[in-house]
Amino acid sequence: MSTHGPMPRSAWIFPALAVLLFAVATALHYSFAPSAAGIVFAAVLLVILFGTVFAAVHHAEVIAERIGEPFGTLLLTLSVTIIEVALIATITLIEPSYTATTPGPIYSWGQLGFVSVVTILLYGVFLYTQTIRHRDYFVIDSSGGSDGSRASNRIMLLSTLLLLVSLLAVVLLAKKFSLVVDAGTALIGAPPAFAGILVALLILLPESVAAVNAARKNDLQKSINLALGSSLATIGLTIPAVAVAAYALDKQLVLGLPTLDVVLLVLTFLVSMLTLGTGRTNILFGLVHLVVFAVFVFLVFIP
Length: 303
Hints:
Elements: H1 10-27, H2 36-67, H3 71-87, H4 109-133, H5 153-188, H6 192-216, H7 220-248, H8 259-276, H9 283-301
Helix pairs in contact: 1-2, 1-5, 2-3, 2-5, 2-6, 3-5, 3-6, 3-7, 4-7, 5-6, 6-7, 8-9
């Protein structure tokens, strides 16, 4: 969807349909089941849900162009974090597999509280760096000026409202989406991690679309801003939020990684250092990252 010109119809139709679908399903007390009617419901849900995600991306980009960088990228990152907190039930880290206070891949409540404080501090320092101390590192140097193409006050207000509606709709439909994914996973005999991959794809879709669009416009700085903001928001905001939810609901939060995933994580760190550490990169490094991801997906099905 273009951020210039009149607002596309899909930018408001899909959020409205998402809210309507949730209201109807709730009023009818509908619970998904693998049947003919369930398949139709699942198809409608997926189309509306993904359309709503794209609508959220559109509205976030409209607002981002108006308020400028780095605050525009920060807005999209925080918007997606809301979706992350709503959908992610377990977060994977290495340390709990090796701590001794509690057995198994979990933290004690004291350890989990410490990690939550540290990650919030880390994200706070990143925000300070991004918006104040080294703001010039994250700002796109544009001398041509694009003020003439910025959204009007009316479009800005409407996009803000529809962005909130879109995010709320995604959060409301998240549980129903997870039921569809779980049923589909069981139906095809896929491992439990397959459901997590599908949920992760939905979570990362908004920022991925925005990053690809920025790259197509030769706006590499915005793509990098999105990558940094997304990864640090996942660490700095999602983990504390999920930890608070686990404590409030008295649920056990599994955060440990098995040895195989630890190896892949270390390999990803090494490739990332080679990709970004020198200040120069090329398409080959990107392909290596995709190969590592393909190995991860492959090992989910054939460990």
